[in-house]
Each structure stands twice: as C-alpha cells, then as structure tokens.
Amino acid sequence: MSRVLSVIRSHDPARPAVNDLTYGALAGAVDRLAADLCERFGTDARPVAVEMANGPAWVLLDLALLSLHVPSLPLPGFFTPDQRRHALADAGAGWLITDRAEAREDVLRIGTMLLYLVRLDNPAATLPAGTAKITYTSGTTGTPKGVCLSAAGLEQVAVSLVQVIGTDYAGRHVAILPLPVLLENVAGLYCTLLAGGHYLAEAPASLGLDQPFQPDFGRLLGTLSATGANSVILVPELLRGLMAALAQAGRTLPDLRLVAVGGARVAPALLAQAGMLGLPVYQGYGLSECGSVVALNTPAANRVGSVGRALPHLTLEVDRNTGEVSVNNHAFLGYVGGGPAPARIATADLGSLDEDGFLSIQGRSRHVIINAFGRNIAPEWVEAELTAQPEVQQAVLFGEGQVALTALVVPSRFGQSPAALSLAIARANGALPPYARIARWHAVPPFTPMNGQLTPNGRPRREAIASAHAALLLPQRM
User: Fold this and answer.
1) Which of 87, 96, 271, 465 could bond to 118 as cystine, CB 3.0-4.6 Å?
2) What architecture does CATH give domain 151-326+343-364?
3) Which residues have CB under 8 Å from 152's CB, separation 6+?
4) Whole-angstrom Cα distance, residue 448 to residue 212?
C-alpha cells in the first residue's frame, strides 16, 4: 500500500481530512470508489485521464487510482484543445473521467457529484514499469512530453516536505492551484494528508478563479479569510494579485502561516513587500521530473534571494564550468514512449550553492541573452525585478546580440497609464546593473496558455512571444 493511503488510515478517523470528509470517511470512500472503478475497467490497464475542477471528487479519484496501481493522467482545465488531444493520445489513455456533461458515456457518482466515464479508443502507449502518474508540461518549445513518475517517488517528495516544514504547519490548506498541477497534487494534497492536516479543495468559483487568467482577488482574499487558511501554494502572479488585494482592502490574513511560492523566479523586493503585508512567503524551486519540489525555504531555514535548501532525499550539484544544476533521480521513470530515466537529472537551470547549502537560480541555460558587448544576462533575473513592480503583471526580456534590451510588459490593470509604466521600468532599472537595464519597452496583451504564449505551469513561451510581437522587437537603427 502507498505511504499516503497507509497514513490516512493511521490518523484519528474523526479528524477532518478533505472538505467535509473525516479521515475515517475518506478511507472508506476511497475503498468504495476503487472497487467500483476496478469493476468498470476490468483488465484494461491503460491510463485513466481525470479532467475536472478542484473538489473532493478529484481527491477521491486520485487516491482510488493510486490504490489500484492504475496510471493517472491529470488534465488541467487550462489546456488548449490541441494539448488535451495530444496528452490523451500520446499517453494511450483508455478512459476519461470528466465533469463535462457533453462527453457523457456512463455515469459515475462520487458522493453527491455526478461525473462521466468515457471509454477511449487510443492504442496503448509504452510506459515505464511502475508508472503511477503522467504529467504533461509543455516547457518552452517543442511537443509536450509525458513525464512518467512513480508513486514512491512522488510520496517521498511529500514525506521530505513534512520533514523540513514540520507537522506544526499542518492545519487548513486551501488548494488555489489546480489539482492536476503536480505542485498542488504532491506538495499540497499529499503533504497535508501525510501530516494529518485538513485539505480544502474549494471550487474555483468560490475562490474567484473560475476565469483562471482573470482572477477575482477580492473574492480569493475573502475565501482565505473565511476558511481560516493556514497554508497555500501560489505562483508569483497570484502572489502579486493577493498582495494588491490585501493592500487595497487594508486587511491581513492572521491565520496564514505558510505561503509557498514557486513556478518562476521571485524578486527579493516582492518578498519584502509580502512581508510588510504580513504574508509569510517562502520561495521554492522544482521541476516535474523530480516530482515537483526540489528545494524550499522554510520558516526554520529561510534565505531571501535563494530558493532554499534541497529536500533531504535529494543531492544537488552545480557544474563548475557551465553553472548547470543537476539532481539525483528519485521519482522520474522516463518519458512516454522513451527510454529509461537517467540516474541524475540535468535541469538546464543555472544556479549556485552557498556555503550553507542554499540554492540560488539565475535562469535557464538556453534562455541566456548574450548582448552585443558579450555580457551574459539571465532574462528571468530582469523579469523578476520588473514584475516586482505593482504596475507590471508579466514581463519578457529580449536582446540577443543587440546593444539594448527590450522588454514586453503586461500592465497589471487595464488602462494603466504609460507614465506609470515608465516609472515602474525606471524603478526596476534602479535595482539592476547598467548592462542589464531595459532601454526599450512595450505594453502588450497578457501571455496565456490560450494564446500559446505561456506554458501551463506559467512560464513564458519565448519563441511564440517573439513571433507574435516581432515588429516590436526589431533592432533600432543606430
């Protein structure tokens, strides 16, 4: 039996577990659902795709598939139709469980929720033995790859997180990121259940996130306050929006004890602003091939400007010549249809380790800009300084081989004045050395997965953005 499922049964059965379910009720519901699914699937061992909004039913399905040793394929709601089709076909999904009524083939009742079970005609794909979960992260270029992960590897990440954070922080965790995102699934759900906490999988509408790229931060703030949330996981854009809502409302979240932020680099200035608003923010770092989290700052060990120390089960190395970070492999089995995973994973991230083992990430090796003077510039560094400004929601830097750097910026609100944006750029430049300062900038519409300019985990697709705004990026004539 998996460690998560075993620990669920060891907790006080009357203790709150997931929304209105106690640990005793959760264990029973998982068993019943697993028996129902086993009868329906028969001998079909192809992966099962799960496509639905956050809620207790998602949690029950994830745990039931884990108990059946059936590979699960979580599909985020923000996938484009092409991404969705590719993932289903590439992974050889045999079944789809969805909350979309138009896809109805058979009804599956989980508690009070009606779901739809669809049999798919995809031929079986070649998966590494022991695959428990397949996650598709589209990266920045190319066709998305299915990352195959083991149950033991995923659970080890959660065990390590509980070890370094401590069970004292296992109170009420509110899921803000979609559960199909590995970070929330492992560091949120599994970690909370292992520590005996109360996991709240709220519907996106109640959090103001029914339009994921136009969040209602006032509603999000209200729900976090009403639920007495003790911990959340955010990406930088959601952190900035929550900070703006707190400042505008003049409120605090006194119950919140741990805000983990990852997915992109966070400027120290933004972390300092969060601290002034009473938000206990701790930056981390990870990648899908490592089961989400690799390193994390914690209340007991926090160094601003770093992404924290490596989790206890991992060993980090930084190549002396290239600066690339590598990590030993515990969870990654290989890609769908590919060969076995290596013993060490080359992350393609540039970083450094200090004398106390804190990791700092400068950027992606393939993204480094070399300007006309031969200076190497990690764009993520400059972009983090830009998005630390309240007026800037998103920013992407360009300037390969050019004398001057150009930034494409997305204003934090519609109708933001050019003068306010110009001041924001100037403030960001003040925190940067001369060779890394922005000489030109242009305000552009938001980068989203829907327009192909953002990956599902929130990283910019630089080539797609450059193509869409090619006219703005033409070198200036000297």
Assistant:
1) 96
2) 3-Layer(aba) Sandwich (3.40)
3) 2, 3, 331
4) 10
